Every structure is written in C-alpha cells, then in structure tokens.
Amino acid sequence: MIREFPCVACPRGCTLRVEVREDGVLHVAGHRCPRGEAYAREELTDPKRVLATSVKVLGGTYPLVSVRTDRPMPKRLIPEIMRLVRSLGVPAPVALGQVLIPELLGTGARLLATRPVPSSEGNAGRAGQDQTPIEKG
Prior knowledge:
Elements lengths: L1 E5 L8 E7 L2 E6 L4 H12 L2 E2 L2 E7 L5 E6 L3 E2 L3 H9 L1 E4 L7 E3 L9 E3 L21 E2 L1
Parallel strand pairs: 5-8
Antiparallel strand pairs: 1-2, 2-3, 4-7, 5-6, 6-10, 8-11, 9-10
C-alpha cells in the first residue's frame, strides 16, 4: 500500500509518498531533507500533535482561557489528556504563558495559557508565572 501526505517538518511542505507493508515502513520518497523521512516514519508509527483547547476560569473576566501544549505529544494520548483538561478549573488571574499543568502523562509536555485572563473581582494582583492555579472541578 502507498500512502501520500504533506510533510510539516520544515517550511518546504513536500508531498511524501510512503510504501507501507504489514511490518512497517518500507520506503519513503518525496522528501527533500532528512527531517521529511524521519517525519514520515514517525507519522506512521507514533504520530504526535500539539494540543490546543481551552480550560474553565473561575472568577475571571472570561469564562475560558485558551491553552496549548508546549511540544507535540503522542496522538494516542489526546483523549486521556482531554479528560484531565476538562476536569480543571483555573482561578483568575491567569497570566500569558502560565504553566497550568507541568507534566502531561509522562510526555514531558506542559499545558500553557495562551492569553491572560484578569480577575473579575478587581484584579487584586498580577497573575504570575510562579502561581499554581489549578483546581479540579
């Protein structure tokens, strides 16, 4: 079987053609750099994605804060990570870049806030990176 998909390992966007057998990848073609071949093999064996979603904010001027992981993680773990993320409630204020979860299921990835959310109760102080604002709820 031959699979064809775009490479996202570099800005070139090569179209990768991968011949696949039951035992794994046999031949990768269409890549113009070594990263393309490595990406094709990874995409077929253990694909990884950066997760972008939102988390509830408690007492903030917005009900949600947008978040993302700081690195790609195995795609197979995303449903389990989303169950964890849906259980969170982060008290305001939330700072841009604030680490909301320092370690996601042994992946080494952190969950970061991608926007600030001030407190709705007269911003009593600045949201800082050193805060640990996670409450499950």
